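Customer escalation, tier 2.

The customer says the design service returned an amino acid string that "doesn't look like it belongs to this structure." They asked us to rerun it and document both sides in this ticket. The original structure tokens are below, unchanged.
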């Protein structure tokens, strides 16, 4: 959440198999708990009023892969477990430790988790990620690469659209969105997203 009624996510999470935007009524936002399938007294549920996808989104290469969901309901400012997160347009430097989180697969082609998982990963240089043995030049402006070039723990399928956080002076700042989980995770920026 980037405001009390706005959820930032990946555009490819908001489109169908033909890349047409899904209707807002297709979605329901549920938050406020680390449990994916259990409602608690802190669970927040809202239908979605409007979907906005970056006007230059292109699924070929996941270019400008960012969108927002405008919610029907607003999270109360005193909600104990769900609050908007600060955002920044500053790109973290190579080697910066970040946190990716989600309910995605716990291993490649494996089952998803029922409890929110988080992993510390580091930003990797575009040059290294764009090498022939990795993404072969497909990491372009507006994207960063984070993870471990030798594999291991990382974001995975189902974590798409989730956050990549960077700690700045004890404030967790959302810097990018996870959008694909192969090799190191690739994340896309949202600084050029315009809400209509």
């Amino acid at each position: 959440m980037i405001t009390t009624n706005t959820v930032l996510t990946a555009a490819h999470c908001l489109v169908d198999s033909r890349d047409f935007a899904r209707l807002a009524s297709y979605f329901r936002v549920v938050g406020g708990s680390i449990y994916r399938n259990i409602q608690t007294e802190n669970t927040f549920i809202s239908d979605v009023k409007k979907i906005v996808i970056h006007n230059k989104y292109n699924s070929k290469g996941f270019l400008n892969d960012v969108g927002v969901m405008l919610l029907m309901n607003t999270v109360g400012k005193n909600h104990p477990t769900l609050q908007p997160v600060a955002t920044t347009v500053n790109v973290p430097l190579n080697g910066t430790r970040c946190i990716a989180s989600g309910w995605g697969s716990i291993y490649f082609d494996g089952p998803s988790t029922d409890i929110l998982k988080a992993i510390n990963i580091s930003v990797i240089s575009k040059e290294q990620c764009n090498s022939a043995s990795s993404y072969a030049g497909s990491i372009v402006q507006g994207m960063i690469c984070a993870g471990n070039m030798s594999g291991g723990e990382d974001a995975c399928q189902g974590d798409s659209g989730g956050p990549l956080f960077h700690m700045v002076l004890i404030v967790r700042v959302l810097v990018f969105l996870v959008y694909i989980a192969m090799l190191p995770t690739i994340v896309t920026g949202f600084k050029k997203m315009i809400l209509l």
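Tier 2 assessment: The sequence is consistent with the input. The CA atoms of residues 27 and 183 lie 29 Å apart. The radius of gyration is 16 Å. Sent an explanation to the customer and offered a walkthrough call.
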